[in-house]
Amino acid sequence: xxxxxxxxxxxxxxxxxxxxxxxxxxxxxxxxxxxxxxxxxxxxxxxxxxxxxxxxxxxxxxxxxxxxxxxxxxxxxxxxxxxxxxxxxxxxxxxxxxxxxxxxxxxxxxxxxxxxxxxxxxxxxxxxxxxxxxxxxxxxxxxxxxxxxxxxxxxxxxxxxxxxxxxxxxxxxxxxxxxxxxxxxxxxxxxxxxxxxxxxxxxxxxxxxxxxxxxxxxxxxxxxxxxxxxxxxxxxxxxxxxxxxxxxxxxxxxxxxxxxxxxxxxxxxxxxxxxxxxxxxxxxxxxxxxxxxxxxxxxxxxxxxxxxxxxxxxxxxxxxxxxxxxxxxxxxxxxxxxxxxxxxxxxxxxxxxxxxxxxxxxxxxxxxxxxxxxxxxxxxxxxxxxxxxxxxxxxxxxxxxxxxxxxxxxxxxxxxxxxxxxxxxxxxxxxxxxxxxxxxxxxxxxxxxxxxxxxxxxxxxxxxxxxxxxxxxxxxxxxxxxxxxxxxxxxxxxxxxxxxxxxxxxxxxxxxxxxxxxxxxxxxxxxxxxxxxxxxxxxxxxxxxxxxxxxxxxxxxxxxxxxxxxxxxxxxxxxxxxxxxxxxxxxxxxxxxxxxxxxxxxxxxxxxxxxxxxxxxxxxxxxxxxxxxxxxxxxxxxxxxxxxxxxxxxxxxxxxxxxxxxxxxxxxxxxxxxxxxxxxxxxxxxxxxxxxxxxxxxxxxxxxxxxxxxxxxxxxxxxxxxxxxxxxxxxxxxxxxxxxxxxxxxxxxxxxxxxxxxxxxxxxxxxxxxxxxxxxxxxxxxxxxxxxxxxxxxxxxxxxxxxxxxxxxxxxxxxxxxxxxxxxxxxxxxxxxxxxxxxxxxxxxxxxxxxxxxxxxxxxxxxxxxxxxxxxxxxxxxxxxxxxxxxxxxxxxxxxxxxxxxxxxxxxxxxxxxxxxxxxxxxxxxxxxxxxxxxxxxxxxxxxxxxxxxxx
Length: 952
Hints:
Pfam families: DNA_pol_B (PF00136), DNA_pol_B_exo1 (PF03104). By secondary structure, the protein is of the alpha+beta class. Helix 14 packs across helix 15 (about 455-485) and helix 21 (about 630-640) packs across helix 28 (about 830-855).
């Protein structure tokens, strides 16, 4: 028998923020209720085709979903597991539960591990299933590069509930011990060493001979306690949604074997239902589910449309009709005219039972469609959760165990790159599906239900069509492509921020490199600067963006150019060098294989000399966009930037590699910007003293007033800042001062490269998928020419698959930079973010300085330049070679000219790579993967003078 909390029982401690409350609810729920709920969930899953594997055997299935659950082991004890939901090639379904012990790590003072293990096994007897010592790579450990590992105690549990309870007991002790450690400075350590007669072991023995009751004082750190349970299992066992697996079940005594099948690539077609509702409403009011009714439910299931009408509101029967806005978006609709709202809802529930969708699609369904249907169903004595398994979770989102809910609005907001004003369904359909959807004034809809029911029906189904095709064309391939690399279920991959997805990926890479995860970054309250001012906020100066010109630029309308002859002299001296770099570095062709190198050089020189001789001219322009390909990821890779590599003098002093001539410390500049309060340290301390003598409102109504020390740290900081702001306003006539500082940070070029390797793997894999996308695009073209319908469908599916995979990789690749500045990030580094932006801004600024002398820059964005160059400027040149793979390549001179500049100014000559881990031998080389790419020439460009969207 399986006990399960209907998919709601999540170990999502650090992601949702309310995990502890969820776990409290789960643990306080009586065994009977949990049993009833789990039985209902199993029934609902079975109703939708997901029967649990009960007989020994082997099946091959495509993993579509996963949920944390609880099952009974052979001793009738409850243990945590994850339910995996599979679709087979013939469309049949099954699920299987995989038990796995949740765990976290603790670190102790040196040589106290055994005593702490003994103490914990007695204290938490019956809760902790297993205690073991595990050596882990800890990137915070001084001198860890020489192979030092930190010993962690791994606490494993039978259930997530046990983990939460034990974590809650250990957490306050860890916090207290860490505070105590911070207050003990180096002198205290030296003094204790001296008191022990200089014998280090004496202090260790003193620490380890503590009474058993004091062993909590020896626990100094706790790691990986907030990794969601299903994510933990996916990371450890490499089980990701949207892959094919062989599932072998050998009975309840053994855990099932789930083995990935990488040879199977094509995805099955899950049953997708996209729906939208139309409701009554009072004039100038928003629909209220308590009093208003559902007039129509329109929905599409796998391309077939259905409309259910409520004849209490709609004045006449609607006949079957078709709504096909474009030939590729077919919409044949079957209509059910129901006598009243109760029949309408019942008919929809019955159709859901009949078709058993795997995926429900809405547009803003979390906050309108689902709650409205739920409330109206309840008014008629129907329970939506009992009928189709959907209910609201603790985040206010509607989810079920047996099906996925995809709210397309979440994709539009995070991944569509549409402007904020275009996030409604009509605007998204217009931008992404390229047709104008039917629009009606909401105030007219109730009238139209009586007077023009057919028009209202057309409007209703247009929303369902738009939602369905928007999902099928963009959201479905993209989200399931992300699922192949992110250890989360599809609901979460759609709804989480890109920083959370990025962190999940880094956790996967860190685990498989045996690196212990850092804890989430904690907020420091009322931090003081070195000169004693309270820091209100701090950040770094971001990328450089500048609008230089406005107007209409066309390639057939001449422009005036004023150029600098000296710039052409500079370019003339470097023609051979520029071309050599483009051929050897970018195209990877040895120079000796090039057949027309000198001819091309002469042709370029001829054009440059012509421009130099007449620097002031009126000429038709070449309109170009010169942008750096994947700029921020490539800056990270070139300079080996990663949060753990940002080091200071103390870190380097403890490192064995810190020797003369080591060349492993790369110093890079960035700009820090802080908002500080003008009051000094003494004034701040005086305000703190005043607050300590005051009383504050009680925690509970009618409770006793609280002293300052009884408030939590956040409340204390809030009162301190408010009082300090009031004081500064009176004494200094201002609350804030902005301070800009140029800072230099040292980047360790030998740090464990798991972060950099993750970024590189993603970049390279994206290029692989782009290549495969081109291959299948060509195959699709050939299949269309041959007229083979089955092959056309297969090629189209593969083309969409690889296009979505490369887009998913692009989305994550661009998140690695922003993630390091995300609040609460595990791998947090303001210095790294600042260095990336500062370096990027310098690359663009230097490129702009050159373009200003040979053309006209129009606009700078963070990673590129829009510019116009004279029509006679050297443009594209064909290089002929004896290379069989590349007999002809086209070199863009504007791009090559900027790339040689980047190579000279931004190459990292200190890049070090570990070539022999046994002898700790590093190889030093020059690294530069920052390259400009040329887009254009364009026929025209319009640059508005307005600073605001929608204003001329």
